[in-house]
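Example noted here:
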Amino acid sequence: MAATAAAGAAAAPPPRQSKLEPREELRVEVPPDASLRVRLVAGTAEIFGTELPPEGWVSIPPRSKIAIFSWHGATLELDGPTESEYPSVETPMVIYVNTHAILDARRARARAAAAQGGDLEASQGPRVIVVGPTDSGKSTLCRMLLSWAAKLGWKPTYVDLDIGQGSITIPGCISATPIEKPIDIVDGIPLEMPLVYFYGHPTPSINPDVYKVFMKELAKTLERQFSGNAESRAAGMVINTMGWVEGLGYELLLNAIETFKANVVLVLGQEKLWKMLKDAVQSKPNIDVVKLQKSEGVVLRNSKYRQKTRSFRIKEYFYGIANDLAPHSNIVNFSDVSVYRIGGGHQAPRSALPIGAEPVADPTRLVAVNISTDMIHTVLAISYAKEPDEIISSNVAGFIHVTDVDIQRKKLTYIAPCPGDLPSRLLIASSLTWYEA
């Protein structure tokens, strides 16, 4: 037995070295069932705008797809399996960092204008919206622009409109959070102060009007914050968008540009979209539409992979990225909570309408939902609203996952990230499901 164990230990390959030349990157895909450790031995290198610490090992979680870039050259050590691992000098990093430099200059001008008592427009820093088709590198570019800005002492606001994946919190949410330091390589976006509105579906096509309403609510809240904080206003925002860029998706992009008053539109990977947006905003001289090169290292993902990623994002919320957290199971009586669905039903019965008029569905109407076994495995949001009619205009406190519904005893069992009573009795239903293995 001891000899077998020793042989198994000996079979484990030792850490391997990889040398990066200046302006070269190492592209790595981590398998779904193992993690990878990376260590900077010499030189400097960064992952999506965040520098690797010298000498210390950094654990890269399973399923990660990363690019380790070096401006001046570096020697790395890698420990663990990878699905793909290769160096490349074909990288748009110089273009991206030049874009960052232009944005930084705009932030400095806005700060100076605020110090001199300039008006709101002059003291407004860049509001950058990153657009492009699916798998064009939007989230990665956002992350780099935010980390580079934070490294220089700015605190830009990150806005995530990509409800299909969710980089701030779980999918199905429109959210925002200030970025006060370079984004952690492992832990990702910090969750200390997120502002989250729960749409509850992975695509806006289910209820685009509610998607627009939540964008408007988030934008209003951010405007209030910026009006009282000149430094945040000068730092501006970086807005991530979904990859749906045709038909209704394109209309929602235009709506997002207008709603958040974006003044810089960065278009990744599609000249047609760049031309369409440039024509659409040509009457607004204060909006710059810029076409940027897409990184060749971007990995294409099919719909099945995206669905799995959504499930992993929900699991991470309850169990942590490293699966090192323990969610708490709780039971509530049906009478202790009220569950609502946003959208559905009709505005008025046919008898109450003028002759010949047809009833029209109200996309923002709240519908009370009876608790049933259909809720098992679904995610519910906990609203900060005090009354049901405030749900649309209120952000959420967090999420629970329904694990059991006992109809006879009228009790609902759920898991939550922390113990204790729910912060509100008003819950929002969704179409998001997660099946715990």
Observations:
- The longest strand covers residues 396-406.
- The domain at 326-428 is CATH 2.40.30.330 (Elongation Factor Tu (Ef-tu); domain 3).
- The chain has three domains: 14-88, 93-292, 326-428.
